[in-house]
Design a protein that fits this description.
Strand content: 5-15%
Helix content: 25-40%
Order of helices and strands: HHHHHEEEEHHEEEE
CATH superfamily: Cytochrome P450
Bound molecules: protoporphyrin IX containing FE
Number of strands: 8
Distance between the termini: 25 Å
Radius of gyration: 18 Å
CATH class: Mainly Alpha
Structural class: alpha+beta
CATH topology: Cytochrome p450
Number of helices: 7
Amino acid sequence: MRCLPLIAAVAAACGTPKPPPTAPLPPDKPAAAAQPAQPSAEADSVAKQAEIKPQAPAGPVAPAQLREMPYLLQVVNEVKRTCPNVPMSFGRARAEVQLNGYVVPAGWLVMMAVVESNQNAIFTNPAVFDPDRFGPERAEEKRHPHAFMPQGAGEMSGHKCAGYDFSTVMMQLFTVLLVRSYSWQLPPQDFAMLWNRIPPEHKSGLVVRLRKADAAKR
Ligand code: HEM
């Protein structure tokens, strides 16, 4: 699993085609405030990321602590939606499918376009990085059983990604360590993605300036 897209997304840059250049951070300002997806989201996003410091201020992080950080899971899901590591998957049509006037006969090989599927218009402003869409008030992922499928659809006993929960926990832990231990900046660069790479990469290679937080503030 690549971590760089996660850094960008935690910084609320992923899914935002041209984030503005960042100004240097004041020493104790949470890093995510430097790259809000939308200016109005800044205060809200800072407040929500603050759930990491009370719940997991230092040391090892247990599953019970992760469960107490619902917004963290929303951020991870939004990263999976906007930056899927695996942009497509393959299968075979078990039965004939009719879709928008096209017919896929039973037995044909089919390809699921994961990126396009997760940016479907079933989501509100699908191109915008917005973890609140997974919050209880909006729950956009429940608008259709297949609305959100960054790692395949259906039951775990089927063809769905075997690393679904593992990748979720890894991304949660990575985010906790990043947010509580570092501040970061994304210097001006081309944030376009090369979607033909697996996993997809930033055209620029994604340049990130990381600064380790003061031990006292960690
Ligand atoms: C965020 C990280 C990950 C993403 C986006 C991802 C995505 C996917 C996708 C799209 C599929 C195809 C599902 C389908 O055909 O319907 C898949 C399958 C699979 N993934 Fe992942 N994956 C991730 C992490 C992992 C990890 C960490 C592991 C192992 C530890 C893993 C193991 C597998 C396996 C074994 C399959 C094949 C399942 C099958 O064919 O029955 N994945 N993944």
